[in-house]
Design a protein that fits this description.
Layout lengths: L4 E6 L3 H4 L18 H7 L3 E7 L3 H11 L7 E3 L2 H8 L3 E4 L6 H10 L4 E5 L6 H14 L3 E4 L8 H9 L6 E9 L9 H12 L3 E8 L24 E7 L4 E7 L6 E7 L2 E5 L4 E7 L2 E6 L9 H15 L7 H19 L5 E2 L6
Parallel strand pairs: 1-2, 1-4, 2-3, 4-5, 5-6, 7-10
Antiparallel strand pairs: 7-11, 8-9, 8-15, 9-10, 11-12, 12-13, 13-14
Helix pairs in contact: 2-9, 5-6, 6-10, 8-10
Bound molecules: nicotinamide-adenine-dinucleotide.
């Protein structure tokens, strides 16, 4: 174990500070701890020294949940004051996405050594670019919490794909149903998973918005993603530079499905919220078996924190860095551009509308 890294969390809603529930079990993909404060409390190499929120209610809730356990943590209502006073090593940016960029840039200017940012990285490509420029020019590692990158069995399925267990990847087919088929709130997770399994860089996109959302427009409203009625479902086709194509169906009136099927030249892998299978074999003799999933040991945020600590200490390439997170935003915004221009094919790179 090396030096203990001083950590701070900006944004104290549930994902920012929810405590581990007593006896919480590590259910499929949702192992505890499931918040940034509880992840820093859990990961031995970090010490939470400060938290911040603009809202007195959020601070009061944080205090009632954590003051007894973490009495030394300083509480702020200004992230700039926190950064000036606390000499942080790492920061979690857990506010709404419209302020991720400014807080990240301020944190890098103040000398932090690592950034963990919630998804989506930002609400525009220009803001994502500001963040990338800030961390790259300062040589600061940044990880974006596209959660499945640290969740079993998604990790195991991706590893099998990378090892060639289904041959060469040719298609990804994803289904996301139910009211929470939301392009920006949960679609960010789905899109990152699709890009990850496709193993290439997206080059073009087509999008058709679900009925009722036709006029949403080419920009992300960045309104927090709390209301499924204001975050559109979109049917999307993505082309990649390795000739993979992804068909991504979002539909709010379908049952609540979250499933990704990755097709290779020698089989396919299917991962959903409660089952992961691999199917291989010859044409008339396909065999499907479960992908045995490792015991959950820690939640995705603790996984991301552990990775960031390692990157700060030893360098390396993040599992999901700001460039991968920007690609997600480019696909989502590209799909809106497509809808807005009469469902035409939109080639990358694009710019904010
Ligand atoms: N990875 C996941 O599974 C997961 C789950 C939920 C939310 N999220 C992401 O986490 C982030 C937060 O989500 P949310 O729904 O809690 O957002 P939210 O907008 O409801 O609230 C975030 C908190 O940030 C505070 N805040 C806003 N601006 C601030 C500033 N300048 N300084 C300090 N505090 C500030 C707000 O007062 C609020 O308490 C979003 O990016 C969201 O997409 C990720």
């Amino acid at each position: 174990m090396g030096e203990t890294l001083r950590a701070g969390v900006i944004g104290l809603t549930g994902i920012g500070q929810r405590p581990m529930a007593p006896g919480a079990s590590s259910g499929w993909g949702m192992a505890m701890p499931h918040s940034h404060v509880s992840a820093y409390d859990y990961v031995a190499d970090t010490e939470l020294v400060a938290v911040c929120d603009l809202s007195e209610d959020a601070i009061a809730k944080y205090r009632s949940d954590w003051d007894a356990r973490l009495p030394e943590v300083n509480v702020y209502t200004s992230h700039k004051e926190l950064l000036e006073k606390e000499n942080l090593d790492i920061i979690s940016v857990v506010t709404g996405d419209n302020v991720h960029a400014q807080i990240t840039v301020d944190a890098v200017d103040a000398g932090v050594r690592g950034v963990l940012c919630e998804k989506p990285i930002a609400s525009s490509l220009a803001d994502a670019d500001r963040m990338i420029e800030a961390v790259e020019s300062a040589g600061v590692p940044m990880v974006v919490d596209h959660s499945r990158r640290w969740m079993f069995p998604w990790v195991q399925a991706a590893q099998l794909v990378e090892e060639g267990a289904i041959g060469e990847v040719v298609r990804v087919v994803a289904n996301q149903g139910g009211p929470r088929a939301m392009l920006f709130r949960n679609g960010t997770h789905m899109c990152d998973t699709i890009n990850w399994f496709a193993q290439g860089n997206p080059t073009a996109v087509y999008g058709i918005n679900e009925k009722g959302f036709e006029g949403y427009g080419p920009r992300y409203a960045s309104d927090g993603g709390h209301d499924p009625d204001t975050d559109p479902a979109v049917s999307i086709l993505v082309e990649y530079d390795n000739d993979v194509r992804a068909f991504w169906n979002q539909c709010k009136t379908m049952p609540g499905i979250f499933q990704v099927d990755t097709y290779g030249t020698e089989g396919y892998i299917q991962v959903s919220q409660d089952r992961a299978t691999i199917t291989t074999g010859s044409k008339n003799n396909l065999l499907t078996r479960d992908i045995p999933h490792a015991q959950h040991t820690q939640g995705h945020i603790a996984g991301a924190v552990t990775e960031l600590v390692d990157l700060v200490r030893h360098g390396g390439t993040p599992t999901c860095g700001p460039k991968e997170a920007r690609q997600v935003m480019e696909v989502l915004l590209g799909a809106l551009h497509s809808q807005d221009s009469g469902n035409t094919r939109i080639q990358f790179p694009i710019q904010d509308a």
